[in-house]
Design a protein that fits this description.
Chain lengths: ~180, ~110, ~475
Amino acid sequence: MLDFLDISKPFDRLDNPVTLEIERAIIRWVHAEARLLDAERYQEWLDGFIDPEIHYWMPDMETRRRDDPRGTFKYGESAYFDDNWRELEIRVKRYNEPSAWADNPATRHVHLISNIEVNATDDPALFAVCSAFTNVRNRNEADQDIIHGRREDVLRAVDGGYRLLRRRVLIVQNVLLSKNLNTFF
Amino acid sequence: MMIELCDSADIGEGEIIRVDVPGCPAIAIARHEGALYVFPDRCPHADESLSEGWLEDGRVVCGVHFAEFELGSGAVHNPPVGCPNLSFFKCEDRDGKVFATLTGGPEHV
Amino acid sequence: MCDGGCKGGARGRPNMAPVYPKAASYPEYAQLVNRENAQVDRRLFVDEAIYQAELQQIFARSWLFLAHESQIPSPGDFIRTSMGEDDVIVVRQRDGSVKAFLNSCPHRGNRVCMVDAGTKARGFICNYHGWSFGIDGGLRGTDGKVYEKDQAFEKAQIGLTPVAQIDSYKGLIFGTFDPAAPSLLDFFGPFTFYLDIMLDNDEGGTEFIGGAIKSEIDCNWKFPAENFVGDILHAFWTHQSGAQAILGAGVDLGKRYDELAFQASVYGHGIETNLDKVGNTRTLGYPELVDYVYDLSEKASARLGDLRARAIGAISSCTVFPNFSFLPGQNTFRVWHPRGPGKIELVVWTLVNKNAPEHIKEAYRKGVMMTFSPGGVFEMDDGENWEYSTRVNQGFVTRQQPLHYALGLESTDLERELPGHIHKGSMNDANQRLFYTRWAEFMEHDNWTDLQNGDTAPPQKSVKAAE
């Protein structure tokens, strides 16, 4: 069980299917979250989808030899996100400022989510959810940034719904081919 | 028949030296944890000199493509494609002189 | 026609000695910096010919930042980086020294190192034909048993082209491709006085936190470099949203701004600071860092004197000419690698004192991530400014209009006994004017005697009063 919450480790044992009913509910949750992020409704996202104990991590990728024990990324080193709830809230506060110039005029977003796999864990309240994404941002006339990656989420069942407890975002870019990351994944 | 190669004091712990024997291809001698090892000074991969490599954790490391050969068994690790094991000559330390049997070629000892 | 003795078209054997480029003189480019009227011509930011001249005159001659000693502690540890657009490997040698080489095989030119970094490398083998180079850059051998049988092949002459000079200053390793360049200390001149604010404020020295954030920005490299050399002014407008998010208020100048704030410049390197103790550190958003810097500042006044101790966490920024920048107090260190006139690759690291407690190092790691990385609440708003400052100059008429660099023309401070050219107030274009003056000196001069004795050279004066 603990392994699912240790953000430095990838998911293993992804062979625990859930009931069709739970799977449908979680897939609805994943799509609803993406729709909220597309609309830049960040405060609602924080209040309605994020667990107070969230750990949200997106490391930067290094190119290393296959036999390098450090690997492509390492928890505790540099990262794009390594946030708890308060830190996510700081980012959301910036978006809410009228002088957030990189978001004014507004950016147009699409979060495409696919390859969704929902798994039960040893804890009946926690679900291990994998997905892949395409994140498209376009602003001004022709500034376009596209980022592909995978997510490994742990969702907690709370009050008949779900909250994101852990998210590990692994993108495929080494040098980030964008001037900034004015979005969430 | 064993022939004399050099003084055993010429080879320090952890060192590989090259010895030229008239009429034979170059020979390499290594010392690891006191023991001596005699082998062709030629990597079985691409003929590079092994005496220009180094010893690491009981292995001879070729300095060119980094094949590693276990001292004693000659078993290869981290081999470039097609690299066979290394073979050794029988050798002994007699009264401070290194002797080895070079006729008949190296073998797994 | 080949009579059999023509060596397949060759007339002699290859001379594989390193080739270091010669500098030239481009007075027509130097004139684009109008020092009479404090204006800069926009062609500096878009013109391909000027960009190629920069690679020759500036990046092939200046001492450029390569790595922090802590990134490559053991023999064989290496990182791959750039000097200008040249790909370079920086390797710790068995004797503890550091060497750096062009990351290009002398055979067909392929990169011999494909990764960002590694530990305890035994050497570098080219994927193309298996040519193998030691960590000292020398050619060890080749694959296929072919060259060894070629009587004319002279292995001993061949190796990866070494960076001509390598030196380090208090943990930071620099290199230059110019064998004739003055020493690293001479290249800095008395600017080391200001570098020590971050590099020598604690007896244990410094280290980089692992990893590096790399990103591309479609801007000319000089816009971010001049931004860090002395443009605190932008913080109040550009970064208002970030300051609100973290501090719940705008950027604060400090109570004694008029009395304390200044800009200093030596050979185009520049720092601006408000000497307000913790203004920059506060914006990282972790109160324990503010406490740490207050304590550090008190202890450091014995090492650095009161003035520099006040600068450790103050509202401030710094660029080492041409493209290495950092923010005291926020501890972000970065290089703006040029990638053509309209693109950079930005690499960002976090610097901490080795002796800092682990929870402080962790707070810096997260604080820099939250502020000065691509998703950080401050850096978020920088990129678009620099991209459009660059891109608009594609307009033919637009780029005929010179840019205004005239803030603080009457602000020279002749009274404060500090090293370099001192100007009053940190909100000032003085350092940026001197940055572009230095740029013009590099364009104009083909020799270091002229380069080190121009208008950006430090005025001769005592610095004792500041110590």
